């Protein structure tokens, strides 16, 4: 007879309440203020990176974009804007006749192309960036960088070199776990979707709660101190039309039809029951995602407790934001439900999602493409998506597959970057070891086929 093991416990702090919880809705401001705020906040980090890379003397060449003289070596710090012809134009969308049929999606989800143009913008104006130094640079709109070069008589800045802000300073890793303790990361559960097989979800639940496996499995299960659900925990009942590109279940007032409201209610009820079983055994952080009943603009606010009347009664359920930051056992976690990374990939010709996630560490920004093509609130006093501190674990949810990489910074930073796969597709949960910062994937794939 197996003796039930007590689940390990470690200290926990929710660090997302200050940067990501909205204190009022700043939806009436201009987005230009957010870019200027971002530039002002990241300029000191870029200047420090310039000193490390090119030396302190190089800052003496720093000028505003409109003050750069032709054929004189200059250094300019500004925000990148990437002009792409494939990027959707909101003016075309609002002026399109409602009876017109949108062109069918050809499967090309990238905005970027060979004819893209890079601009560098600061408080005074903008310059076109050209040069071979840009050929291999992975950059997206909204990134604050420093560039060196000369302005040509035609007005373009011929770039000879460029510099990002770099990985932010990292607090010391003070892991409280002396043995192997784990945080589980999962995303894309889509609980309640009738088209999905519930067996892998049930197996995940039973594994995390210690109802499956041998004695060795039970020991590891008892050492899983927390579960983070990184978005898309439930399903959106509204289907998208591939031919029209519009949401067919929405009326002209952009509200859910009655049938879709009922489906959504059933999905959320199923999620509540599922979370009640989970949180009865372990602490759970629930982040909203793209398909969840939450606000569209980032940062997404937590599920309202009235949606989850059973599970929210338990203290072990933490309804949190997207993006989300926390400290578990002395290890800082920071991540999103995947929208920022998905949007960045539209700007880049590469399909290397893990590299793009690592790049955002060097940008010191979680969501650089917001607000250009990624919806967010128009913050004016500060940009909450700036990484003032480097996390120890940096993750993105709802990705096509599991990948991870240990990133080392120039000042001793050590970051585990993790792509958390969508569970509905990959049937995979990720375990992060708090002591070693190593991670492993738990796969429940094939269980639904075996049951057929």
UniProtKB/TrEMBL annotation:
GO terms for biological process: DNA strand elongation involved in DNA replication; mitotic DNA replication. The keyword Glycoprotein does not apply. Its main location: nucleus. One of its GO terms (molecular function) is DNA binding. Keywords: DNA replication, Nucleus. Belongs to the DNA polymerase delta/II small subunit family. It is found in: Nucleus. It comes from Prymnesium parvum. The keyword Membrane does not apply. Residues 183-402 form the DNA polymerase alpha/delta/epsilon subunit B domain. Residues 30-161 form the DNA polymerase delta subunit OB-fold domain. GO terms for cellular component: delta DNA polymerase complex. This is DNA polymerase delta subunit 2.
């Amino acid at each position: 007879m197996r003796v039930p093991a007590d689940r390990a416990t470690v200290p926990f702090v929710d660090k997302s309440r200050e940067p990501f919880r909205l204190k009022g809705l700043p939806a009436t401001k201009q987005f230009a203020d957010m870019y200027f705020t971002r530039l002002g906040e990241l300029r000191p980090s870029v200047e420090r990176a310039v000193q490390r890379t090119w030396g302190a003397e190089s800052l003496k060449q720093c000028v505003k974009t409109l003050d750069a003289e032709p054929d004189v070596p200059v250094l300019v710090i500004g925000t990148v804007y990437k002009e792409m012809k494939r990027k959707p134009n909101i003016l075309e969308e609002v002026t399109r006749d409602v009876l017109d049929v949108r062109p069918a999606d050809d499967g090309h989800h990238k905005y970027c192309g060979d004819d893209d143009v890079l601009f560098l913008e600061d408080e005074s104006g903008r310059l076109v960036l050209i040069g071979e130094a840009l050929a291999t640079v992975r950059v997206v709109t909204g990134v604050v960088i420093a560039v060196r070069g000369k302005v040509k008589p035609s007005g373009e800045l011929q770039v000879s070199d460029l510099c990002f802000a770099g990985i932010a300073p990292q607090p010391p890793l003070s892991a409280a776990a002396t043995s192997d303790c784990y945080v589980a990361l999962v995303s894309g559960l889509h609980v309640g979707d009738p088209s999905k097989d519930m067996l892998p979800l049930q197996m995940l639940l039973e594994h995390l709660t210690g109802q499956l496996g041998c004695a060795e499995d039970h020991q590891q299960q008892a050492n899983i101190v927390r579960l983070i659900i990184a978005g898309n925990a439930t399903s959106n009942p509204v289907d998208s039309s591939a031919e029209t590109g519009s949401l067919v279940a929405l009326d002209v007032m952009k509200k859910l039809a009655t049938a879709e409201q009922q489906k959504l209610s059933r999905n959320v009820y199923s999620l509540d029951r599922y979370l009640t079983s989970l949180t009865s055994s372990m602490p759970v952080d629930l982040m909203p995602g793209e398909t969840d009943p939450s606000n569209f603009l980032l940062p997404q606010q937590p599920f309202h407790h009235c949606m989850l009347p059973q599970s929210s009664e338990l203290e072990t359920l933490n309804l949190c934001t997207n993006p989300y930051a926390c400290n578990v056992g002395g290890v800082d976690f920071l991540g999103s439900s995947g929208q920022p990374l998905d949007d960045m990939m539209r700007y880049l010709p590469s399909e290397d999602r893990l590299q793009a996630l690592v790049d955002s560490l060097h940008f010191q920004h979680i969501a650089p493409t917001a607000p250009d093509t990624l919806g967010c609130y128009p913050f004016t006093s500060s940009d909450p998506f700036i990484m003032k501190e480097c996390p120890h674990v940096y993750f993105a949810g709802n990705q096509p597959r599991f990948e991870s990489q240990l990133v080392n910074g120039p000042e001793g930073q050590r970051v585990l970057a993790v792509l958390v796969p969508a569970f509905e597709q990959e049937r995979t949960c990720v375990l992060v070891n708090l002591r070693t910062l190593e991670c492993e994937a738990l796969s429940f794939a094939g269980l639904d086929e075996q049951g057929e």
